[in-house]
Amino acid sequence: xxxxxxxxxxxxxxxxxxxxxxxxxxxxxxxxxxxxxxxxxxxxxxxxxxxxxxxxxxxxxxxxxxxxxxxxxxxxxxxxxxxxxxxxxxxxxxxxxxxxxxxxxxxxxxxxxxxxxxxxxxxxxxxxxxxxxxxxxxxxxxxxxxxxxxxxxxxxxxxxxxxxxxxxxxxxxxxxxxxxxxxxxxxxxxxxxxxxxxxxxxxxxxxxxxxxxxxxxxxxxxxxxxxxxxxxxxxxxxxxxxxxxxxxxxxxxxxxxxxxxxxxxxxxxxxxxxxxxxxxxxxxxxxxxxxxxxxxxxxxxxxxxxxxxxxxxxxxxxxxxxxxxxxxxxxxxxxxxxxx
Length: 340
Prior knowledge:
Helix 3 (143-161) packs across helix 4 and helix 3 packs across helix 9 (292-305). The chain has ten helices and 15 strands. It has helices at residues 44-48, 99-102, 143-161, 180-189, 204-210, 224-230, 244-248, 274-278, 292-305, 319-328; strands at 3-9, 16-22, 30-40, 65-72, 85-88, 126-130, 135-136, 170-174, 193-198, 214-217, 234-239, 254-262, 283-286, 311-315, 334-338.
């Protein structure tokens, strides 16, 4: 039987190693994907370091997968054919029977199948995934661009399109890193008056290059809230920065009925009191990525508007180096593994 290579950690917190495994056939309702590219996401650290329940080792992380269908399992929907280009993101399949699934809210499935947890992730040459996790990649997108859009892309795109903002509204994106640089691009393309918020005056030109109409330096003497209010108040703030103090600082910059959409992950509590929310009816909402259809919508929108992630590409053999660079914060802005 033929073999394929994976980048795995043998134990929680351990180093990456390249090992060979025997190729398996996909079961019913599953497909085997030849992986062309896989993004290295900060959330992968939760799998590497056993921060999620029920993980088993050796473990192959990776939930930003782009590739081609090699084989379909018995009973797989006939719309998926060998050779189709597909992506798999954080949404790696749903159970179909829990209450959220029965209500059609698959991304908050109580038994969500996370690649890297429920099954081997994309730090590999092949992956077997459920067919309901598949998103079709447009011809215009390279695999190295499609892969990060399956997580970072859909999270920012979907967070904005499901927000209260409408074209012409003032929308602020907090942070212009791995998530935020995409958030600014999507906000501008959606027709929002776009504000980028980051640390330091030196990032102003970069923010404008991404499409921002305004830039707020969060280290300046004027507070972020006052700066937003001087522009009329933000209908939506998309908080991509994983910093609770920075997120908290935006709340008083919201307009009446304004909405804070949180996608930056941090365990620290937000310093917000009920009075800040009640008087003007403000809303705080967490946003969890998106389904396979949402990923497909994200890629289609990106292809239509010429939006691509900023990436650094490394071969699978250098998975350890790529992962460490991502964790150090030095990547600009998404690390992507390639297998071919």
